[in-house]
Amino acid sequence: ATNRTFTMIKPDAVEAGNIGNILKMITDGGFKIVAMKLTHLSETDAKKFYAVHAARPFYGELVEFMSRGPIVAAILEKENAVEDFRALIGATNPAEAAEGTIRKAYAKSIGENAVHGSDSDENAAIEAAFHFAGREIF
Ligand code: CMP
């Protein structure tokens, strides 16, 4: 069935001027944008968003990175959205990302990896609700 995933274009990719290139890969990949904004996570927001990673050694670095500049947050709609979008973005580590993926093209490192994609339908709904009010979703 048609369903939804949540994505962020992360600060590294916004800083590098790659918003347009990444949105083109997303829409060329068959995803429909049903919500989107340029926003900025405060340190408190980033801590909350990534609370699931709080025990990881890279948590502090991740929070600092994700709050250092603006991001694009969006909700995407497609058949099999979560799985297909994770295929389009590629492996977390860009050195392992397949040719043709967003991270292969634009990610700098395992931490500064250009884009986020939800890892389950449940998390997609939680992450979408973190960023968007109902009236912002079309
Ligand atoms: P993402 O999968 O979108 O969400 C968790 C993020 O944690 C991941 O992207 C990376 O940005 C970051 N991350 C994962 N592993 C590491 C690591 N070993 N070092 C630094 N950051 C990491």
TrEMBL record:
Its main location: cytoplasm. One of its GO terms (cellular component) is cytoplasm. SUPFAM superfamilies: Nucleoside diphosphate kinase, NDK. Its EC number is 2.7.4.6. SMART domains: NDK. Residues 2-138 form the Nucleoside diphosphate kinase-like domain. Keywords: ATP-binding, Cytoplasm, Kinase, Magnesium, Metal-binding, Nucleotide metabolism, Nucleotide-binding, Phosphoprotein, Transferase. Its cofactor is Mg(2+). Transmembrane segments: none annotated. The active site is at 116 (pros-phosphohistidine intermediate). It catalyses: a 2'-deoxyribonucleoside 5'-diphosphate + ATP = a 2'-deoxyribonucleoside 5'-triphosphate + ADP; a ribonucleoside 5'-diphosphate + ATP = a ribonucleoside 5'-triphosphate + ADP. Belongs to the NDK family. PANTHER family: NUCLEOSIDE DIPHOSPHATE KINASE, NUCLEOSIDE DIPHOSPHATE KINASE DDB_G0292928-RELATED. Major role in the synthesis of nucleoside triphosphates other than ATP. The ATP gamma phosphate is transferred to the NDP beta phosphate via a ping-pong mechanism, using a phosphorylated active-site intermediate. This is Nucleoside diphosphate kinase.
